[in-house]
Amino acid sequence: MHKPLLAAEVSEPGPQPGLGGPVIGIIGSGDFSRSLAARLVASGFRVAVGSRAPGRVSRAAFPAGAELCSQGEAAQRADRLLFVAVYPEHYHSLLGLSQQLQGKVLVDVSNASSLSRQEQSNAERLAQLFPQSSVVKGFNVLSAWALQAGACDGNRQVPICSDEADSKVAVLQLARRLGFSPVDVGGLCAARGVEEAPLVLFPSWGRPILLTFLLFLFFYGYNFLRHILLPFLDQGENNFYQLPLVTVNDTLPAVALVTLALVYLPGLVAAVFQLARGTKYKRFPGWLDGWLCSRKQLGLLSFLCAGLHAVYSMCLTLRSAAGYTLLNTAYHQVKAGVENSWVEQLVWRSDLYLSCGILGLGILALLAVTSLPSVGNALNWREFTFVQSGLGYAALTLSIMHTLFFGWDFAFFPSAYRYYLPPVYLLALILPCTVLVGRVFLALPCLMFRLAKIRRGWECTRHRPPNHLEPEATGDV
Ligand SMILES: NC(=O)C1=CN([C@@H]2O[C@H](COP(=O)(O)OP(=O)(O)OC[C@H]3O[C@@H](n4cnc5c(N)ncnc54)[C@H](OP(=O)(O)O)[C@@H]3O)[C@@H](O)[C@H]2O)C=CC1
Ligand SMILES: [Cu+2]
Prior knowledge:
By secondary structure, this protein is of the alpha/beta class. Helices cover 54% and strands 8% of the residues. It is elongated. The structure holds NADPH dihydro-nicotinamide-adenine-dinucleotide phosphate and copper (II) ion (CU). Copper (II) ion binds at residues 253, 309, 357, 402.
């Protein structure tokens, strides 16, 4: 019923380059206009770029298939779609074009200049200025450059909204033909959110960062209490010099270990849910969904803490305090007449924990690299699962071993529980060990086969033998 918005709409698979595809208009000749024109021409459309002063615009900046003309001419030449690539504060300067723009679809591509939900959206303002045209909001990609970037960015999602269904369909089709994945986000009242999306700072990182920060605060506070405050109050020991480096370095591995455990815990919880419900088709609770979606961020934060811990550890011996302690120990040893202070057991301990730590960090680095979209996309499904799950558990196991070797047998002596507080590494081990035990438990054949069946679509209620199904189906239970 709606008139074809693009000539190409009738003849799939789309307009042919140079063969007279539909004309798309663009008002404005700035950065966005140039990038859009290049992409439109490359996709086979003809383009009319309308400028206030076409003679002043550099012809070389636009592709050969784009025609530079006045704003009025562009409005007239456009078959139906016109992009408004002008800053919103200049929309009113286009009012003289109202006649030519009548009945046309105006695509508002502007981004918000600040985050303030109360304000009217730019698109709604444009719709008020041009009541005779229909306004569609869309194409809010991260930058004009992202718009131009070809195939590698092709799957980028672009939200699109409008109150006019026909016009919205036309813009959705155009976006698809330009290689984007358009998402219909509803009416023009959604425009404000669309305009603000490029301004939101790391939306998926807030909670993981907060969680990591809280863990840091907890472990740092615990270390401060156990190693600095209580010894000071109790025996007047002055260990405050440890605050900037030693205490931070005692805290970072604990945070890294617990955060890494938090990457793998939601997967186990999800498996338990599926086993208990006997189906994978029921939605997980919201908190679990959110947690599952934060695993990549948590993993990268864990890697950051582990990396910092490695750098801090390498600097430990550079400190003046380390030099003094070594000299003092040597002096005491000379006085006591001890010639050889080699303790075979402790030599093994330090070599083992260092080696496990280095290997664990190396694997974490590999995981971090494969979590980059460009690298992850190059792996097939099996490779990705192997790296993210198999190697992930290897990193977790090595980190636990690193901590266990570090703790050695000291945890078995009462002196480790100064002021009745267990050492921090013991606290940090609780969650990771629970995750590892949970994983081993799920690898038991009976659970593993049932879970594999569920993940292939088997449902316990549907596949039960009829005599089991009956009472439930009739509601007798
Ligand atoms: N959707 C997205 O992801 C992105 C959207 N944008 C949006 O695109 C729009 C244009 O951005 P961009 O191309 O970077 O900006 P530019 O400053 O590079 O270009 C703006 C153009 O507007 C034209 N214009 C028309 N009327 C006026 C006027 N009265 N005063 C000044 N200029 C006028 C000018 O062209 P001429 O002189 O030829 O008339 C100028 O080249 C903005 O609304 C911006 O928010 C920008 C980047 C990404
Ligand atoms: Cu360590």
